[in-house]
Automatic annotation (TrEMBL), chain A:
GO biological process, one term: nitrogen fixation
The protein's name in its UniProt record: (FeMo) nitrogenase cofactor biosynthesis protein NifN
Any Pfam family: Oxidored_nitro
Nitrogenase/oxidoreductase component domain residues: 20-420
Pathway(s) served: Cofactor biosynthesis; Fe-Mo cofactor biosynthesis
Family indicated by similarity: Belongs to the NifD/NifK/NifE/NifN family.
GO molecular function, one term: oxidoreductase activity
Source organism superkingdom: Bacteria
Length: 430, 509
């Protein structure tokens, strides 16, 4: 049984869930310490992105704009205003690295970022990320690949105890931290690119709005090439791993489609055991027992329910696997953008579409897992909702949530089961 | 003489391409030839920075002579991030809840915008304000043009959701590729027999304020005067520039209605297409807290002879003053008397409700760092609660706002040009008890260990009208005694001096 991915042949998106490449690129830049995102486009591209992520993470976002207007759009191929933008913000913010990326308008008119950057004497990493191609995942991946292509040096030798972790965009900051901790426990020296685990993880920082205060250090990116092992998570990070292997062809690459649920985590642990010849430490083993227990405890409620999941492909496929392990029926997956991973999902039907498509088949589900925009629809049709994805506006602590590995999977199953149980109780007594 | 594409003719230049083709011609050798006579003699320098600078400045704007800035806005590259014209237009019109708001562009424009503002509506059908519609143009559309996709999108949306009208928003991308949105809208309008309004406010054309003006102008151009109201009263007014964010409008409209004033139409909080079409029968336009909306009032004054006044409902004194000035326009002693009665009643109610707060807040000092007209609107409200305003940011204020501020603040109050640098020293110097600002100033407040109240556009509570003042007092009172600011601003154990730690140990022992 291989489900076909259905591309909705609509000329419109209603209740859209897709997000754009520049937004993904922004997040990727913020995973580097001392960075500043610079959007090459009209002022709105950066101001809307800034508001979006500020409200999602409840934290300041270090982003600036080249403020293309109707005059510079014609007379300036980007050379003038990118330089002017940098000159203008330097007195206020001195980033170690500027992450420059294009938007729809500047890509369409053919601004050549490579040429622009070569004429400016300041460290800049650039990526071409028009918003009319791809989505959040590809924007994040393109920016990550740019750091590898433009900053990372070719290694003289590689170390078998050094790991580069390439997390997909939808992994929460504390989930990245969790995977890093697990790898450290196996004796590896670990670097994640991009690394949001100390930048958008919801800590009280100083001056976060002018320059990004956490993330992987530039010096560490330069020396990433010596990592003997690359672990990429999600299909969207495959191109980034390929970029890495171009420069460091002797490294071992492991791609995991996801890290949620018992089997996915088992796979990761098996890889690590094979690589190191070590067993995980006691706490990890014990969390597996808790996860087993959570599966048993939650299967009563989850097992009887049907689910629709909407969001970024890497995340929803991963979540679907985790829920399916507890016996939940995945009636449909609705992804924001196409992905190879969707073809291998456990769902009965898989779409690339929007929340209007979700509403169209809402009767096929009991629980909707989507971002904040799905709330209205779930409420209208009396469905249980669990919030995951971008954006989540009405809850705080989004970045603190951990759904991955044995410990996160345990919490995730419990949360989903409780949402179902609470709803059931609510219906009974009211 | 500076070259000035005035805001007016930019609006008329329907598409981006038109702007170029009317002013310049590309010659065989690849150079731009200047067509407009006032640009002649500048061919050789057309690409230099000075000329670009001149083109950016709209010298016809009245504010230009004062601050060398115009309303169209020319934010310099690289500085902070302000909203774009599309954002302004979208937020200005999106509160119309029975119309579809279709964004013709790529995903960032609407993907990061929709359902971000709580805009109150009384509409009983499906609230289209909280739905996102976009054509999500892709690579192929950029190459082949997005007109067909737009036409299909309009057909799909109208057929499925039966709106009273459709607003189609142009964006940077679709302006650049030159989609003829006007033609598509006209054809669809004919087919579906409902107003389908093209809104030409691509992001790069100017600031959020300018976009708001372009959006409202498009609505006035296409809608106002196309339908007659069922009945009219001598006391019909329109509210202009009121978006009803968090239901703010409803804190004062019942009072106006009680006095006997009818809100015929709003642009565009809790708005309806039909109401907007009937707006030309109003006797007065009231601009609520938004300077950019004055342009459409002038338009309506010229076309239908509707006079307009500006009014703010932030703070008790301002609200009472606004009601009096609205009533004064009708020249009806009975109406004025009724207004006085209700004003007296409301002021007494507020005074009573504020009593406990005033004891708590009297003599406190506040520093205020917010944008535009909100700077003085909040200053007045704070004064009404009994808080002294010792400093206000004027970074985003225009000349009118600054003049207003000077008239209401004490002589020694500081007007901050660079609040980022000035506010911390100011808090120290004045011993201020409270900081009201946007989210990024949180750290300033924590550093000084004083309470912080966020007053950004997205998070502002219901602070409008008489009840709004009580809400503001309640929120400030809730923050002023909250321990988190001192607690969070304090030192961690490892930041403390050694002697302090020893003290602790001795105490513990």
């Amino acid at each position: 049984m291989k489900p076909n991915v259905i591309m909705k042949n609509k000329s419109i998106q209603v209740y859209p869930i897709k997000l754009s490449q520049p937004m993904g690129a922004t997040l990727a830049v913020l995973g580097v310490k001392g960075s500043l995102a610079l959007a090459h486009g009209a002022v709105g591209c950066s101001s809307l992105t800034k508001i979006f992520f500020t409200r999602h993470f409840c934290d300041p976002i270090a982003i600036r704009t080249t403020a293309v207007n109707e005059v510079t759009a014609i007379f300036d191929g980007g050379d003038g205003i990118v330089k002017e933008a940098i000159q203008n913000f330097l007195p206020r913010a001195k980033p170690e690295i500027i992450g420059l990326f294009s938007t729809g308008m500047t890509s369409a008119k053919g601004d050549d970022l490579k040429r622009i950057v070569s004429a400016i004497d300041y460290p800049i990493v650039y990526a071409d990320t028009p918003d009319f191609v791809g989505g959040l995942e590809s924007g994040w991946a393109k920016m990550a690949a740019a750091f590898i292509e433009q900053v990372m040096e070719s290694p003289k030798s590689i170390r078998s105890d050094k790991v580069l972790l390439l997390p997909h965009v939808s992994l929460h900051p504390l989930e990245v931290e969790g995977v890093k901790d697990l790898l450290t426990g196996f004796g590896f020296e670990v670097y994640a690119l991009p690394d949001l685990s100390e930048s958008l993880d919801g800590h009280l920082g100083v001056n976060q709005a002018s320059v990004c205060q956490g993330g992987i250090a530039m010096n560490d990116i330069r020396q990433l090439g010596s990592a003997g092992i690359v672990i990429s998570i999600g299909a969207s990070m495959l191109p980034v791993a390929e970029e890495f292997l171009k420069k460091s062809p002797h490294s071992v690459h492991i791609n995991l489609p996801g890290i949620m649920g018992l089997q996915a985590t088992d796979t990761l642990i098996e890889h690590l055991m094979r690589l190191t010849g070590k067993e995980p430490d006691h706490r990890v083993k014990h969390w597996r027992k808790r996860h087993q227990d959570a599966l048993i405890d939650s299967h009563f409620s989850i097992g009887r329910k049907r689910f629709i999941l909407a969001g970024e492909p890497d995340r929803i496929v991963d979540m679907a696997n985790c829920i399916a392990e507890a016996g939940g029926t995945i009636s449909a997956l609705v992804a924001s953008t196409p992905s190879k991973l969707l073809e291998r999902s456990v769902a009965q039907r898989t779409f690339v579409g929007d929340l209007e498509d979700v509403e169209g088949m809402i009767d096929d589900c009991d629980v909707l897992i989507s971002n904040y925009h799905g709330e209205r629809i779930a409420h209208r049709h009396g469905k249980v909702q669990v919030l995951r994805g971008f954006p989540i506006l009405e809850q705080i602590g989004v970045q603190l949530k951990v759904d991955t590995l044995y410990n996160g999977g345990t919490h995730f199953l419990v949360e989903v089961a409780n949402a179902i149980i609470t709803d059931h109780a609510h219906r009974q007594y009211h | 003489m500076p070259i000035a594409p005035t805001s007016k003719n930019v609006r008329r230049q329907k598409t981006f391409c038109e702007f170029i083709t009317t002013n310049y011609m590309i010659e065989d050798n690849g150079y731009l030839k200047v067509l407009r006579s006032d640009l002649l003699g500048k061919e050789d320098s057309i690409m230099n920075k000075g000329t670009i600078e001149e083109l950016r400045n709209d010298t016809s704007c009245k504010h230009y002579n004062v601050s060398k800035k115009n309303c169209k806005g020319n934010e310099p590259p690289g500085l902070a991030t302000f909203g774009c014209a599309f954002e302004g237009a979208y937020f200005a019109l999106a509160p119309v809840s029975d119309a579809i708001h279709l964004v013709h562009g790529p995903m960032t424009c609407v993907g990061s915008t929709w359902e971000f503002r709580h805009v109150g509506t009384t509409y009983e059908g499906l609230d289209k304000t909280q739905m996102g519609f976009t054509t999500d143009i892709g690579e192929m559309d950029v190459i082949h043009g997005g007109e067909k996709k737009l036409a299909k999108a309009i057909d799909y949306a109208v057929d499925k959701y039966h709106p009273k009208g459709v607003f189609v928003y142009e964006t940077c991308m679709t302006a650049l590729i030159g989609d003829d949105i006007d033609a598509v809208c006209a054809a669809a309008e004919k087919h579906w027999n409902i107003p389908i309004i093209p809104v030409h406010a691509p992001g790069f054309i100017g600031t959020k304020n300018f976009g708001e003006r372009l959006g409202l102008e498009a609505a006035v151009d296409h809608l106002v005067g196309t339908q007659e109201p069922e009945y009219t009263t001598p006391y019909d007014i329109n509210l202009i520039g009121e978006h009803n964010i968090n239901g703010e409008m409803w804190l004062y409209t019942p009072i106006l209605e009680e006095i006997g004033i009818r809100i015929l139409s709003t642009f565009s909080g809790d708005g309806r297409i039909d109401k907007m079409r009937q707006a030309h029968r109003a006797r007065l336009n009231v601009v609520v807290c938004a300077k950019s909306s004055e342009a459409i009032c002038k338009l309506m004054e010229a076309k239908w002879g509707i006079p307009f006044i500006s009014a703010s409902f932030y703070g008790m004194r301002e609200a009472s003053d606004a009601i009096r000035r609205i009533c004064a326009q009708f020249n009806d002693p009975q109406l004025a008397a009724r207004a006085e009665e209700i004003i007296a009643r409301e002021e007494a109610r507020v005074a009573k409700a504020l009593e406990p707060y005033k004891i708590l807040l009297a003599g406190r000092k506040a520093v205020l760092n917010t944008g535009g007209n909100k700077s003085w609107a909040f200053a007045v409200a704070l004064q009404d609660i009994g808080i002294e305003v010792v400093g206000v940011s004027i970074r985003k204020s225009n000349e009118d706002d600054k003049a207003k501020l000077r008239s209401i603040l004490k002589a020694d109050a500081v007007l901050m040009e660079k609040p980022v640098l000035e506010q911390i020293p100011l808090i120290t110097q004045t011993n201020a008890d409270l900081l009201l600002a946007g989210g990024r100033s949180l750290y300033s407040a924590l550093k000084k260990g004083i309470p912080f109240i966020e007053v950004s556009q997205e998070k502002t509570g219901n602070y409008c009208g008489y009840t709004g003042l009580i809400n503001l007092a309640r929120d400030i009172a809730g923050s002023i005694n909250n321990p988190v600011f001192k607690l969070v601003g304090g030192e961690a154990p490892w930041e403390k001096k050694v002697s302090d730690l020893e003290q602790c140990l001795i105490k513990g022992a």
